[in-house]
Every structure is written in structure tokens, then in C-alpha cells.
Amino acid sequence: xxxxxxxxxxxxxxxxxxxxxxxxxxxxxxxxxxxxxxxxxxxxxxxxxxxxxxxxxxxxxxxxxxxxxxxxxxxxxxxxxxxxxxxxxxxxxxxxxxxxxxxxxxxxxxxxxxxxxxxxxxxxxxxxxxxxxxxxxxxxxxxxxxxxxxxxxxxxxxxxxxxxxxxxxxxxxxxxxxxxxxxxxxxxxxxxxxxxxxxxxxxxxxxxxxxxxxxxxxxxx
Amino acid sequence: xxxxxxxxxxxxxxxxxxxxxxxxxxxxxxxxxxxxxxxxxxxxxxxxxxxxxxxxxxxxxxxxxxxxxxxxxxxxxxxxxxxxxxxxxxxxxxxxxxxxxxxxxxxxxxxxxxxxxxxxxxxxxxxxxxxxxxxxxxxxxxxxxxxxxxxxxxxxxxxxxxxxxxxxxxxxxxxxxxxxxxxxxxxxxxxxxxxxxxxxxxxxxxxxxxxxxxxxxxxxxxxxxxxxxxxxxxxxxxxxxxxxxxxxxxxxxxxxxx
Lengths: 221, 258
Description:
The complex is a heterodimer.
Chain A: H1 4-12, H2 28-33, H3 38-61, H4 71-93, H5 95-101, H6 112-120, H7 127-157, E1 159-160, E2 163-164, H8 184-201
Antiparallel strand pairs in A: 1-2
Chain B: H1 8-18, H2 20-56, H3 63-74, H4 81-95, H5 109-120, H6 131-147, H7 152-167, H8 176-187, H9 197-217, H10 223-257
Pfam families (chain B): NQR2_RnfD_RnfE
Keywords (chain B): Flavoprotein, FMN, Membrane, Phosphoprotein, Translocase, Transmembrane, Transmembrane helix, Transport
Transmembrane segments (chain B): 12-28, 34-52, 59-75, 81-99, 129-147, 154-170, 176-194, 201-218, 224-251
């Protein structure tokens, strides 16, 4: 099949090289909010990926029938319907996690990542390519969420998926839980550090310098 | 400040000389424990300075020694090595070295480390600053002001506001050592504080006002915690104070010269 190498790049590009969070800084509101524990991060990542793939597929299928002037309304309607379905499923089968995720599942509707992919890719490409692209972006988002969620849970509570990894001081161990990791600022720090690490490894992602410092003569001694 | 003798490292060294009285009194009263703490913070800060020298060719600075001293005196006790290591690395790297080293930073690395540890480990007890260490801050301020690395205006502004608060009946009998030490080690950082005449007055007044307000209304906080919070907020606002001072100066100049 001639198209498969292209599909493969569409799938793998958004994992690191075109990662929606670390390169495009999209969808970070939810990335910051739900990553205090790994299970919520995983649930959120899975929900978003499912919504993203399905909405990309549906919008791509009817892309030639959507009038350009009301396309945002149509796209948001489709995304919102899918989000409601996902939300109901989570409430039915994973009530505890869904309560901890609170409004953030519903807020997938307004996630920049979903609308960004449908608006920029699914609107102009056939269904298969759109869904592969959406899957790639969803996985890229999931990757970052899982990394940050795992780090925050281990450092903040000494646990992973609720199981103890580092024995905490209260339980007679040696690890002092790092409360800051459960607050929003730490997610900013981690995301910043992650972006820094990725851009050091892939320097082509770094933005051009906005201004150059003036050259000064060092005094000779 | 790049002409003649005065380069970045002269400022850092003069600052270091100025804080010597404080360091000596503190080590004299703290004994071997104090020396151990100081060596630990010196090692961590020094490690990151060397890493950034090797990777980014940023010359290490003597200011790191002052940071380490401030941390050794003010950091929370009973924390264990790992939290202190994380906190110090965060403060030194994120608040100072990523900006290009001392002189280009916005906030004092010690202030950032202390605030980070304070938020991260709210239950760890803050150290008590004993009275002789508090008094030792006065020669520090004198030497710093005479050497030109600390600002008389910042010190005067802070002392003025705290003095007024004291006369209005605010009880500072147990907290004044921490206030004095924080003032000379965190607030008077020549880089992170305001640098215009009016801005410096405002900076000192703001620190004094915040500290007085926290003392009056934040009942469960330790003295050092109050000082660190006030210093963090004051140095975050310092660039705006400079902007205000410059805008006022420009407006006055425009009115006079047309």
C-alpha cells in the first residue's frame, strides 16, 4: 500500500517531534489539572484520545457537507455529543475516577487540541488519515500526561496507581511526600522542564531568539 | 557597572564580605551543625554553577556562596537531604542559572528555594533566628551600604514601615531577628531588588508593609516563613516599582522640557 508510510509518519510525528503539548503547548489546562495521580491522568488521556479519534472520523466523513460559515458550531456539536457519551460511560463504570476528574472530562469539548486537530486536519483530509492523525495526537498527549502524572504521584504521595512505591515517613519509611507536587504550580515546573529537555534533545524545536544581548567588553585585568 | 574595578564579581565579593559578620556569629552559635549545613548548601549550589559553566560556558559566581549561606541560615529544619537537594537545585537552577547566571535573574535564588520548600513541606519547622544573629545583620547592612552593594533606601524604607508598625503596637519582640536577617540576605540582593531611587524606597516600604501585615494577621506562621513570603512578593514586584519610577521620571521630564 502506497499510503502506509505516510500514515505511519502521520501517526508517529505527533508523539515527540510534533507533540501537541510540548511543541504546540495545546491542551495544557487539562494536562495541569488531572495529573496529580496516574489513574486520573490515564483516564483523561484515554477519554481525550477516544473523543479526538471519533470526532476526527465523523467530521472528516461529512467534511464536504459542512458549510464553511457554521463549521465551528457543527464541530463543537459533534465533539460535545461524544464527550457527553464518554462522561456518562465514566460515571457508569468508573464513578470514583469520574468524580475526581470532576469537570475536566466535560471540558474536553473546549480542549484546544480537539478543535485544533478537527479544524486543521480532519476538515481537509479523508477519514482514515484524519483518524490516524487524531490517534497520533491523542497518544502524544497521553504520553506527556502519563509521564507527568506518574512523576507527580510518586513524588507527591510516594505511590503509583495507589500502590506504595516509596515508603513514606507516616508509614514508617524514609520518603517525605512532596506536597508541592500535588499543587498546580508543580505541573507547570514539570511541563517546563519537559519542554526544556525535549528542546535540548531536538534543537530544531527551539524558537528563534527574540533579541540578542548587547556585546560588552569585559574589563581587562 | 562594567568600567574599571566594578564588574559582576566585585559586587558579589563585596556582598560576600558584607555578610561575613552574620556568617561568623551564626557559625559561632550553631557549632558543627551549622558548618555541616553550610558545606552541604555550598556543595549543591557549587555543583550547579560548575555544571552550567561546563555546559553553557557561564562563569560561576561568588553570589552562589551568599545563596548557600542564606539557605543554611533560613532553610527549614528536619527536612532530610533529598528535599533540601531538590529545593536547592530548583532555586539555584530555575531562579538563577537558566536566566544566564547571577546578574540576569529576576528573583533571588535563596528566596525561591525557601518559598519552594515552604510550599512543598508545610509541616517542617522553620528555624528560630536567635537574637545575636539578628543583631549581626546590622553591621552587614552598614558594610553593604558603605561598599555600595546594598541600598540605604531599601533598608530605610523597610525599617521606617516596621518602626511605625511597632509604635502602633505590633509585637515584634520575637520576630525582629528574622526580619533583620531576611532583610539583608534576601531583600537587599543587589540584583533582585529595585534599582531606581524611588523604586528602592518603594521596595523597602513594600517589604516592611507586607511583613508587618503578615505579622499582624497570619497568626500560625513562623517568623522566617513571614519574612520569606514578604521577600518573595516584594522582589516579584520590584521590576514594576522600577517601571513606575521611570515612568514618573519620564512624565516629569516631558512636562518640564515640553
